[in-house]
Design brief:
The protein is an alpha+beta fold and about 160 residues long. It has two domains: about 90 residues, no CATH class; about 40 residues, no CATH class. Helices cover about 15% and strands about 25% of the residues. A four-stranded antiparallel β-sheet has the order 1-7-3-4, with no helix packed on it. A three-stranded antiparallel β-sheet has the order 2-6-5, with no helix packed on it. A hairpin with a 5-residue loop joins strand 3 and strand 4. Helix 1 runs antiparallel to helix 2.
Length: about 160
């Protein structure tokens, strides 16, 4: 994932515009849960990448939205290029094996695949078929609600991870 700092905010991995209230001490990580955090690369104007020393930051995985936080008295490198100056490399998900994925998420995926199969070709009609309400019930505990300061102020962003 490439993070844009300091003038852009990257929620859910999409560029949404300039965030004028971006805090200068942390960067929210778009995907969750974090399995492992590998490194941060600093990219300068010439395009050269150097690994940023891990003593400058820590990864806060306690929050529902994990973040990269500067250590006390720290600051982000000053020689960043203006766009895509930091490259954050990490693994997100529930684990390497299928058994690590929570059962409600697997059940919701199977229910949705069944719904899509049973209603293939039915989406040309109006109104289109509606997925079963069981899906919302299964996914609700894994929904992360984020209140953010984006150009689209007062927007509530929801998603799984």
């Amino acid at each position: 994932m490439i993070a844009h700092y300091p003038t852009t905010y990257v929620p859910e991995g999409f560029y949404t515009g300039i965030d004028r209230n971006f805090p200068d001490t942390f960067i929210d990580l778009a995907m969750t849960p974090i399995v492992s955090f590998t490194h941060v690369k600093v990219i300068d104007d010439a395009g050269a990448e150097t690994t940023w020393d891990a003593s400058n930051y820590y990864v806060d995985t306690v929050r529902d939205v994990p973040r990269l936080v500067l250590r006390d008295g720290g600051s982000f490198p000053s020689d960043l290029r203006s766009a895509n100056g930091l490259k954050l490399v990490y693994d997100a998900g529930y684990g390497a094996s299928p058994t690590s994925i929570p059962e409600p998420l697997k059940m919701a995926m199977m229910q949705y695949c069944t719904f899509m199969y049973e209603h293939r070709g039915d989406f040309e009609r109006f109104p289109p078929p509606v997925p079963p309400k069981l899906l919302k019930t299964l996914l609700l505990p894994y929904q992360i609600m984020r209140f953010g300061t984006t150009p689209y102020s007062n927007v509530l962003k929801m998603g799984i991870g």
